[in-house]
# Entry
Amino acid sequence: MKPGQRVLFALRKMIVSGEIPDGTRIAEIGTAERFGVSRMPVRTALRTLEQEGLVARLGRRGYAARGPTPTSIEDAIEVRGVLEGLAVRIIASRPIAPAFARKLKACLAQGDALFAGDDFVADDIDRFYSYNLAFHDLLLDASGNSAITVALSRNNHLPLASAGALAVDWDDLASARHHLHAAHQDHHAVAAAILAGQPDEAESRMRRHARAALIPGMMPLVGPL
Amino acid sequence: MKPGQRVLFALRKMIVSGEIPDGTRIAEIGTAERFGVSRMPVRTALRTLEQEGLVARLGRRGYAARGPTPTSIEDAIEVRGVLEGLAVRIIASRPIAPAFARKLKACLAQGDALFAGDDFVADDIDRFYSYNLAFHDLLLDASGNSAITVALSRNNHLPLASAGALAVDWDDLASARHHLHAAHQDHHAVAAAILAGQPDEAESRMRRHARAALIPGMMPLVGPL
DNA sequence: AATGTTCTTATTGGATCCAATAATATCGTT
DNA sequence: AACGATATTATTGGATCCAATAAGAACATT
# Structure
């Protein structure tokens, strides 16, 4: 991996994981020496992180880490809810393309398969992760509104804020299954409202689905940063 | 102004104005020579524009301009509508702080003053621009949800997509007055719903207000890029 | 002693140089 | 003549160097 990408990913991970505490000052020179690279990749990385809202400018004295707080995560989840809500509203407001309906049902079938039996293993969480991501991406894509995707691209760097992040308890598979099953049922409800051509219903269902990620005390399953 | 800012603003303006047609390839070297600067400010500017969605990477052959299309502008306006709708929903869902109520009324009073008389001059459009921006900023700020601001910061670089952009006919002041007055009345309706503690009403009013920018045939009044 | 001014220093922004890489064109071979 | 391999070139990414600027400290003056 190239130095620029490496520094960017490393800084991102350190900030969202709290390894770099919120408010910590991040200077170009010190960071460059720390990573053993030139100041240039650090500079570009900081610019990108600034766009993502993970660092804030400190006048002329460099940047400050803006680590995610419980409040900022809740805020981002709420934003995701309304944006994905808009996506499904748009879809439900228009005639449903047969190809889309087919893909949607096929996607849901993947989820159905996961909960067909009573057994639930750790790998199923990974499988649900893939299915969940596919479901949300499908809707975002079908809306045809690229501004939604652009607006969402920042939230996805915060843990728990992206659609691909799920709050599950890895140590209690029964609880995890229950939790993810509820999310899957949300998906069905949203899909039903879409296929029935009910924009309001689809939107409010999607909003509530987003807020379901706000279960306290759960360890986040964060996708690839 | 520093070279970096200058190049960034110039490129942004050229792309959104169509001076650089959609799809045009933008290389670092050529652009740097064109502006008489080093490649470095061009590079940072292109990275920023990429984040804003105004240019897209072309593999290793530089970037391509992604000029705004009517569709992308409509999409961005719709996104702005739901995000600002969320902001006012949040405000209306909570107890109203007296200080906020005061500021809100003071802000609206600025607008009232603009339409008190029957005369309307070109300068009044500028004044409305300031008032309009203050109104939207006040609500965004009062919501306390910084994720909304972050998500919106990209849209605001597209003409007509930002809250500070207004579609007015500079040659027909009477028409402009009518148009802006309608927007001002929208503000009153939103404010009333907020102060009355009606989240649903406030949100839907705000959404409709955003869509009011979608009047075809009007010249955009774009704020400082 | 307090405050204003100046000097030093830390830090960011820009420019130039060097390296890596991929696309393209040309030449050789079949 | 066509296809493939190689070499050249165009272009981006990174490193180092230089300039501008602002913050902070120290000193002088009132």
Observations:
- The CA atoms of residues 86 and 185 of chain B lie 20 Å apart.
- The two ends of chain B are 14 Å apart (CA to CA).
- Residues 2-4, 37-41, 44, 59-61 of chain B lie near DNA strand C (CB under 10 Å from a C1').
